[in-house]
Write a structure and sequence with these properties.
CATH superfamily of the largest domain: MetI-like
Shape: globular
Strand content: under 5%
Number of strands: 0
Order of helices and strands: HHHHHHHHHHHHHH
Structural class: mainly alpha
Largest sheet: none
Distance between the termini: 63 Å
């Protein structure tokens, strides 16, 4: 009888080559994997070397930060003194200085109420949401306008700056979304009359630029209201922005409705739900979740498009920066103003985008 064959032990795995792991491996795989990737990497590095150091020198190294007049800007870099001296007007417009606390209070209420919605275990989420949708607009209107509880009246032509930009964007988004949902449902309706009206509305508002809508809202809208009834210029602009944005949101939401499988509609009918209950409880929650990127993209576009209200005499954030640049004491600093405006808009849009990604991850329950 022969002895059993000896067992061979498996040699331990060798470590991967040093050139394929770590920073070196990442660079070889992503930046220098082929000859054309290497050429593009070298070109990008050359462009960064040519562009970034001069910008950093202009914006930080050689910039002027202190002072209160243009005489303080004696260096070759940016004059951030201009931004510092006009910062109040950039934020509040021509809103009375002694009354700016009202804008700050309104913003603080909005931020605190919205922040509570981010805590999963906050017990009064439903009540806070109802207040934000129905109570806060009333509180904010009387707080900003005044003429109640001892507050002096502040006319809307004095509203401006970043404050006006956020008012236009937030009010436009909040009211345009439900209108867009109704239009999307109407466009998919089986009733020919309802469908025709919704299609005509959507195509009409999508077929004209926003600048034309603002002109029409400012000039033509008063001609279609009863005699003796007047609308504030800001209200006219808000109505035009809401209807314009609702047409675009309707098409975004319609895409989400068409993406819902037919079985979801049939399942809602099998449960005995009527049309509106099926839409509210089954279809719309799924459709809106699918089109979160499109809705957020429309909101970001609206935030940037609010700068067009300058053409009807409303000095929003960018309008106040342009007005400050024409001041005889501060001529020649338009570049600093536009850089500051671009930075503020980027921060706002980037924050909205990151929140939308968080919302997508939170609502992603699989399909």
């Amino acid at each position: 009888m022969t002895d059993a064959a000896p067992a061979f032990e498996r040699a331990p795995d060798l470590p991967p080559p040093a050139s394929t792991v770590g920073v070196v491996g990442w660079m070889r795989q992503n930046l220098f994997s082929t000859w054309y990737n290497t050429a593009l990497t070298v070109l990008a590095l050359w462009l960064i070397w040519e562009a970034v150091p001069p910008v950093v020198a202009w914006a930080f190294v050689d910039a002027d930060w202190t002072g209160s007049t243009r005489d303080a800007c004696a260096r070759e870099g940016a004059c951030w003194v201009f931004i510092k001296e006009w910062f109040g007007q950039f934020v509040y417009g021509r809103y009375p200085i002694d009354e700016r606390w009202r804008v700050n209070l309104g913003a603080a209420i909005l931020v605190v109420c919205a922040a509570t919605l981010f805590f999963p275990r906050f017990p009064w989420k439903a009540w806070v949401s109802v207040f934000l949708l129905f109570g806060y607009p009333v509180v904010a209107f009387f707080l900003f306008s005044g003429d109640v509880m001892g507050l002096i009246w502040v006319e809307t032509p004095l509203w401006g700056g970043l404050f006006l930009t956020l008012v236009l964007a937030i009010v436009g988004c909040v009211f345009a979304l439900p209108i867009g949902i109704v239009l999307a449902l109407g466009r998919r309706s089986r009733m020919p009359g309802v469908r025709a009206v919704c299609v005509a509305f959507i195509e009409l508002w999508r077929g004209v630029p926003l600048i034309t809508v603002l002109f029409m809202a400012s000039v033509m809208f008063p001609l279609f209201v009863p005699e003796g009834l007047t609308f504030d210029k800001l209200l006219r602009a808000l109505i035009g922005i809401m209807l314009f944005q609702a047409a675009y949101l309707a098409e975004v939401i319609r895409g989400g409705l068409q993406a819902i499988p037919r079985g979801q509609y049939e399942g809602a009918q099998a449960l005995g739900l009527n049309y509106w209950k099926a839409m509210v409880l089954v279809i719309l929650p799924q459709a809106l979740k699918l089109v979160i990127p499109g809705i957020v993209n429309s909101f970001i576009a609206l935030l940037k498009d609010t700068t067009l209200v300058l053409i009807i005499g409303l000095l929003d954030f960018l309008g106040m920066i342009q007005a400050a640049g024409t001041n005889p004491d501060w001529l020649g600093f338009a570049v600093e103003g536009y850089v500051f405006a671009g930075f503020v808009f980027w921060v706002l849009c980037f924050g909205i985008s990151r929140y939308s990604l968080h919302l997508e991850r939170k609502l992603h329950t699989g399909h």
